[in-house]
Design brief:
Number of helices: 28
Strand content: 15-25%
Shape: globular
Oligomer: single chain
């Protein structure tokens, strides 16, 4: 087979037609999917799309618009810290996973907020379309034939990975666009072209998110390594030459990353500061046989329940296996390179440890599969012309691959025919096989009869392949969504009602009256505060959040933090709400009043539409003072509930800065004597094992409670072999603990839970705990102990009043600064309900003061008696270094442009001088 079969000539007269055809077919497929699916069911899902991606789009379009307005008005200082996000977060950190600097966000700046819902719906399809354009650009650079590039681009954008992110993580799609450009940039460097294309592609990719950048860099390293190995054909291996090529590429990688340093450095430091970087799980080396079978079938048919479902077109999968198993005596260098790259991806696909590595050593995740999709489609575009012209003997190989998939269908589910998505996959597989196996036979007969020329004969198989791909793409998109019972969609009416109107209209927070709001949780409400400047909430749910907050919640066993990157509130704890400046709690119906903390009273707020306002009469401002402080080393000796109660008397600071000891504290919480009755379960307390003998088991805790108290139930070393929700019931209060096994993606080494069953004026005497098990077999929990505590509120009003006596007044908040005044009668610790971060700098009366990390999560200042003007300034950690790297890389790129120009001008001047002298000599 000659090279012209694989590549096109350099005549690009028809190169633009492929974009027109691609656009037409893309719009047709999206239209079909919209008519038969999205228009009926909707596109927004109950999950991260609503909880994270939509709020961040709303926030950042406002944020970028504000930056532009400030620049035009001469204000160069931009907001770096937001109190609207949970207890307060660095903007670079919480937005890192949602492509905040995506170029398409610039379009969102001009979109009115009332139309942002429609912009959010359209944006994923725009990214999807541009991904295909990027793939076409790469393939044209490689000089593949346009007709096969078109087929490959459709395969590329209508695959399982795209379907998965389209309705779950639409911002992730941006990496699908940048990957072909990054690979093209590497190819340009190996062809000794200028590295500018690669440098800018890498910088732009880095600006849209470090998470996928990490995966891309790993893949680029492997891609470049294999490419370098095959570049030594015909020349002697040389370690010096190998290292020279590696170092040459490495410097361009560093330059591209440095160009995005102003964003990348703060984000990486934020990740290292989070709790996610400390989680280590056991490595899984192999899957079970049924899992491998489902993954194999999932290459071309299956429900989109996980990232490892490739769901490619049957045509591309047949081409892939044909390419791998076809042996040629003298394969060209490109074929051997692609085969090595494909085998590497298959190795990563088969062994979970590789997915563990690609996911940043956090847990096994196949989000990297977009890399494999790219390789499969490059192989498809490269190898499809060969299959169309294959020999008769190779037809049997295709048939064997076909039978292999049918056997996998049967092994995965013996009743696969009644399931529409499997039946559809089988039909498409047969059609694709027919297209590849039968058409070349007809083609050869037509060639031998000389009825037409070769170019016209080649159109027939291409058209049939195109039809197979179009039908495959439309069917996969429709069937996988309709048959997927793991996805819950909002209807269009529900989506518009939820996102085009605010959840509630709250009283506006003024600069001089900072406060937070608690609420009985509505779905995903924790992130919606960033869309509404009218209130500050408590919860947040982002990929990266302040690790000091999650560590504090973990050490106090807060039940309302579910994972290391998500907390909803503070479990309605009276004390925690007080020290975090919660002024009121919002509830939506009278039945939710049982969740109100101590003393909260309903207030009429005519401007508040929707929920009811229950105000905290013992509200503490953002800054108040303690006389005593213990050391963090002694603080760690306290139980979870003691760490909560101690906040009424003292705080914990760095060793050497304390003025009190643990023995000086008195605790009022009381552990209750509990009588336990169990239904449908047995508990071996010595072995720390709780076994359910039926689907649900009920444990009833009976005790003699206390009046005017909060009642807590504590579960120690609670774990399970599968993810489970343990429920607690007491006098109308319903709480739940999310129990995650070590195999779970969201596991973060949390096994102890302290559950607040609410405040009650009358004593509570009973708590019921419901454990969920399995119908098919006995289900086992790990459980060391269960304790019940009562925390009386008798001394709470007096102690809160003491803390409030000397607190910050004249509070003011600007973009990166908070300030206020306080008068202290003696040396005290001024506690600030602001999450601790290295980005804060404190000045007291104009002089820099040390900020003490307090109770793990917060800040305090140790100040002498007298009046003090306190100023706190925030600057994102790593931002200065990032800007220096970016400025330096811009300077280096500038020198790369300027120096050759100066050298060229110097040589031109020198040549002109020589010519002038020569002319002068001739004239003489």
């Amino acid at each position: 087979m000659n090279k012209s079969t694989f590549v096109q000539t350099k005549n690009k007269r028809n190169s633009g037609n492929i974009y027109i055809l691609y656009t037409i077919i893309f719009l047709f497929l999206i239209g079909i999917s919209w008519i038969f699916f999205f228009s009926q069911i909707g596109i927004l899902t109950v999950g991260d799309e609503v909880a994270q991606h939509y709020p961040i789009l709303m926030y950042f379009t406002k944020y970028l618009k504000g930056i532009i307005q400030n620049l035009f008005s001469g204000k160069f200082a931009q907001t770096m810290f937001s109190f609207q996000v949970g207890l307060g977060e660095d903007i670079f950190r919480f937005s890192a996973h949602s492509a905040p600097l995506d170029i398409l966000h610039l379009i969102g700046i001009v979109v009115p907020q009332k139309h942002m819902f429609y912009f959010f719906i359209i944006l994923p399809f725009v990214r999807m379309y541009l991904s295909g354009v990027s793939f076409i650009h790469f393939c044209q650079f490689k000089q593949f034939q346009n007709r096969y590039i078109l087929l490959g681009s459709l395969n590329y954008v209508f695959c399982g990975w795209i379907f998965y992110v389209l309705i779950r993580h639409p911002f992730f799609m941006i990496t699908f666009f940048y990957l072909p450009l990054l690979i093209e940039g590497i190819e340009r460097i190996f062809q000794k072209q200028k590295p500018n294309f690669f440098i800018f592609s890498l910088a732009l990719s880095a600006l849209t998110g470090f998470y996928f950048l990490y995966m891309e860099l790993l893949f680029l390293a492997v891609y470049a390594f294999i490419r370098i190995i095959y570049s030594f054909k015909g020349s002697k291996w040389s370690w010096s030459l190998f290292l020279d090529k590696v170092l040459s590429l490495f410097r361009w990688v560093c330059l591209g990353l440095a160009l995005a340093g102003f964003y990348l450095v703060p984000v990486i430091l934020g990740f290292l500061d989070s709790d996610r970087s400390d989680i280590h799980k056991p490595i899984q080396w192999l899957y079970s046989l049924p899992t491998y079978l489902k993954m194999f079938v999932g290459m071309l048919s299956g429900k989109l329940v996980d990232w490892n479902i490739l769901l490619m077109s049957a045509l591309s999968i047949l081409t892939l296996f044909h390419f791998l198993f076809t042996s040629k005596k003298n394969p060209d260098r490109e074929a051997r390179f692609l085969k090595s790259l494909t085998l590497f991806c298959l190795f990563c696909f088969i062994f979970p440890v590789m997915s563990y590595i690609f996911n940043g050593f956090a847990y096994v995740s196949y989000r990297w599969i977009f890399l494999f999709v790219f390789v499969i489609n490059v192989v498809f575009v490269y190898h499809l012309p060969h299959i169309i012209h294959h020999k008769k003997t190779e037809r049997y190989l295709l048939f064997e691959i076909l039978i292999l998939f049918y056997l996998a269908f049967v092994l995965v589910d013996k009743k696969f025919l009644p399931q529409p998505f499997l039946l559809f996959g089988a039909v498409i597989l047969w059609m694709s096989y027919s297209c590849l196996a039968i058409i070349p036979r007809i083609q050869r007969k037509r060639k031998s009869s000389n009825k037409t020329n070769t170019s016209k004969i080649d159109i027939l198989p291409w058209i049939l392949c195109l039809c197979c791909i179009i039908l495959n793409a439309a069917g996969n998109m429709i069937f996988t969504y309709k048959e997927n019972d793991t996805v819950t969609f909002y209807s269009w009416e529900e989506a518009k009602a939820k996102f085009q109107k605010p959840l509630f209209s709250s009283p506006q927070i003024s600069d001089y009256d900072f406060y937070r709001l608690d609420f009985y949780r509505e779905e995903h409400l924790e992130n919606f505060s960033i869309m509404d400047p009218g209130y500050y909430g408590l919860g947040e749910y982002w990929s990266i959040i302040n690790g000091n907050i999650t560590k504090w919640m973990k050490e106090t066993q807060n039940n309302d933090i579910t994972t290391d990157n998500r907390y909803m509130n503070l479990d309605q704890s009276t004390i925690f709400n007080a020290i975090t400046s919660v002024k009121a709690m919002l509830i939506w119906n009278k039945e939710q009043e049982v969740y109100l903390p101590f003393a909260y009273q309903k207030q009429d707020k005519p401007e508040l539409q929707g929920p009811s306002w229950y105000e905290n009469p013992y509200f503490l401002p953002m800054g108040f003072s303690y006389e005593k402080a213990i050391s963090l080393s002694e603080y760690e000796k306290l139980s979870a509930l003691e760490k909560q109660e101690m906040l009424l008397d003292t705080v914990a600071v760095r060793d050497g800065q304390e003025n009190s000891q643990l023995k000086d504290l008195n605790f009022n919480e009381t552990q209750m004597d509990v009588e336990i009755k169990m239904e449908g379960m047995t508990w071996d307390k010595q072995k720390k094992k709780l076994v359910l003998h039926q689907e649900k088991g009920i444990m009833t805790l009976t005790f003699e409670g206390r009046k005017n108290s909060e009642t807590y139930v504590q579960m120690l070393s609670l774990d399970s072999e599968e993810e489970r929700l343990v429920k607690y019931f007491s006098k109308g209060v319903l709480k739940g603990s999310q129990v995650l096994p070590i195999q779970s993606d969201w596991y973060w080494d949390r096994k102890d839970f302290l559950v607040n069953m609410g405040y009650s004026q009358e004593e509570k005497t009973q708590i019921q705990i419901e454990f969920s098990g399995s119908r098919a077999k006995e289900f086992e929990y790990g459980l060391a102990d269960i304790k019940v505590f009562c925390l009386p509120m008798d001394q709470y009003p007096e102690k809160i009043q003491q803390l409030k006596e000397e607190s910050i007044i004249n509070f003011q908040q600007t973009s990166n600064k908070v300030s206020g005044d306080i008068f202290l009668s003696k040396e005290k610790y001024v506690f600030l309900s602001i999450p601790y971060s290295k980005g804060w700098i404190a000045k007291v009366n104009g002089k820099t003061e040390e900020i003490l990390q307090t109770n793990t999560a917060f800040m305090s200042l140790k100040l002498p008696a007298g009046g003090h003007h306190i100023e706190l300034f925030y600057f994102t950690p790593g931002l200065k270094l990032g800007f220096l790297l970016s400025a330096g890389s811009v300077g280096m790129l500038g020198l790369r442009v300027i120096l050759p120009m100066l050298r060229k001008r110097k040589e031109s001047t020198k040549n002109q001088g020589k010519n002038h002298s020569k002319d002068k000599d001739q004239s003489e």
